[in-house]
Specification:
about 375 residues; about 0% strand; mainly alpha
Length: about 375
């Protein structure tokens, strides 16, 4: 369990019960072997400058995350995904460090260079160093492993992550807490849903035709999954980022700002919106499953693993359960000790008054 250190939490450490009707608590059977291989890779490239940074890098539990959202499938694509996650978390921590020296301009410049490095290997867009050398290795192996269509989708996912991070940095630099609609439309990009799901496709041999993958109903379902995972991350990561000024942009703080209340008072509204989207996800996934072939059925299953696995991973990741702003080193065994509930806190089947989300409900059949 968690022992609080440092300043008190604005929302507390006991998170509300999670509504997740497909919580199978699965994990890939090769997770221990994959973690060992991935950590050996991070050490070989020296992506962490010292022992403390290495401890916090490993506290992301990137192998556990990857093996929970992809509990089945080929080992080699999953290993590459784990290594991408260790690398991406190192970059993400730099972008989220709250340092005034890291401006929107710096993040935007770096993001453009990262995106082009993925699309145009060997373009010398980034300065030499361990993270660049590791990236070059990841890009070369990714381009050899993925099909051209998967590579295109992976690049789109990376752009989502980088684009979302840049927008959040711009809001912070201007001292602006975004409104709910803007945050719902753009903020969830930063969790890299398509970045992750591409590797689920690769590991499980999922190959959907573009007309299916990019159809409005399936895009709505994928976006809904991304919103749920992002909202859950806002709960688990809240105490990790609550020392930042201005306040971190997350669903709880956005609602608190909108409603003129404290983050603790905004917490039920954040969970209610998340649960309403979960209700939509369950209905729309069932609708798509009725006439699904094997490939689509596996993709729909993968979205469920993405949501459920993310919850289980974050519950036990020291990155969140013993955050760096309160601990000198990660606390092994720290956990939120979450519980689950059988019914949503908001069971409404109507779309919320958030235009950026409401179109998902339009994909439901009458």
């Amino acid at each position: 369990m968690i022992a609080e250190h440092g300043h008190p939490s604005r929302i507390g450490w006991h998170l509300p019960p999670f509504y997740c009707p497909f919580n199978e608590r699965l994990v890939h059977p090769k997770v221990a072997e994959l973690e060992q291989r991935a950590v050996e890779w991070t050490d070989a490239f020296g992506i962490y400058p010292d022992a403390i940074e290495r401890a916090w890098g490993l506290a992301t539990h990137s192998a556990d995350f990857s093996a929970r959202i992809i509990p089945y499938g080929d080992v080699e694509p999953l290993l590459l995904f784990i290594q991408w996650n260790y690398w991406a978390n190192a970059v993400d921590d730099w972008q989220d460090s709250g340092s005034t020296a890291i401006s929107t301009a710096a993040i935007t410049d770096h993001s453009v260079r990262l995106a082009r490095a993925i699309e145009a290997p060997g373009s010398a867009m980034l300065p030499p160093g361990p993270l660049t050398a590791a990236l070059d290795d990841l890009v070369a192996r990714t381009r050899a492993m993925l099909t051209p269509f998967q590579l295109r989708r992976f690049t789109e996912g990376a752009r989502d992550w980088l684009f979302g991070a840049g927008w959040q940095a711009a809001c912070a630099e201007r001292g602006v807490m975004p409104g709910l609609n803007d945050f719902a439309a753009v903020g969830a990009l930063a969790n890299g849903t398509r970045f992750s799901l591409t590797w689920s496709d690769a590991a499980n041999g999922i190959d959907l035709p573009p007309d299916v993958l990019y159809s409005a109903p399936l895009q709505a379902l994928t976006d809904a999954a991304g919103f749920i995972v992002s909202a859950d991350n806002d709960l688990f990561s809240y105490n990790k980022d609550d020392d930042q000024e201005p306040w971190e942009q997350n669903l709880i703080n956005v609602l608190a700002h909108q409603d003129g209340c404290s983050p603790r008072e905004a917490l039920p509204a954040a969970v209610a919106l998340r649960d309403r989207v979960m209700m939509l996800f369950v209905r729309l996934r069932a609708q798509l499953a009725r006439d699904a072939d094997q490939q689509l059925g596996r993709y729909l299953d993968a979205l469920g693993h993405y949501i459920a696995g993310s919850i289980e991973w974050q519950n036990q990741a020291p990155r969140y359960a013993s955050p760096r702003n309160r601990n000198e080193l990660p606390v092994q065994g720290a956990s939120f000790g979450i519980t689950y509930r059988d019914t949503p806190s908001d069971a409404s089947t109507e779309p919320p008054s958030v235009p950026a989300l409401a179109w998902w409900w339009q994909q439901l059949e009458e």
